[in-house]
Amino acid sequence: MDLQKTKHRRQLRRRRHVRRLIVGTAERPRLTVFRSSKHIYAQLIDDISGVTLASASSRTKDVRETLPYGGNIKGSQVVGKKIAEAALAKGITKAAFDRGHFRYHGRIKALADAAREGGLKF
């Protein structure tokens, strides 16, 4: 089996392992994080009704104006603060953190810490 298929299967296995116990509700939505090489994205998802409640990314216009590049820790911190602001505007104070298949370090950890500082509780 080629390397890309093996890598993808390992990622899916880790993602299923992480998401097995996490379920987002309206009171405590799932904070999903996706990291690409150039950008980072965060969403608050209510899994019961299948609705995205709030989102933030390094590709939005207000973030791009403040940062020239969104694929670093500074970009993650800004996105973490933005998702916390959006959550508090909707009345959400608690969330279940879903890191997907990414390790909890670097940009993922920076986003989570910034969201905590912004007022979200995991």
Question: What features would you describe in this structure?
Answer:
The chain has 122 residues and is of the alpha+beta class. The chain has one domain: Nucleotidyltransferase, domain 5 (2-Layer Sandwich), CATH 3.30.420. The protein is 42% helix and 19% strand. The chain is built from four helices and four strands; from the N terminus they run αβββααβα. The chain has helices at residues 3-19, 61-66, 73-89, 107-117; strands spanning 30-35, 40-46, 51-57, 96-98. Helix 3 runs parallel beside helix 4 (107-117). It is globular, with a radius of gyration of 14 Å.
Straight-line N-to-C gap: 39 Å
Low-confidence stretches: none
Shape: globular
At the first level of CATH, what is the class?
A: Alpha Beta
Structural class: alpha+beta
**CATH-defined architecture:** 2-Layer Sandwich
| Residue share in helix | 40-55%
Tell me the CATH topology.
Nucleotidyltransferase, domain 5
Record the strand order, biggest sheet: 3-2-1-4
What is the overall pLDDT average? 93
Set down the secondary structure blueprint.
Layout: H1 3-19, E1 30-35, E2 40-46, E3 51-57, H2 61-66, H3 73-89, E4 96-98, H4 107-117
Parallel strand pairs: 1-4
Antiparallel strand pairs: 1-2, 2-3
Helix pairs in contact: 3-4
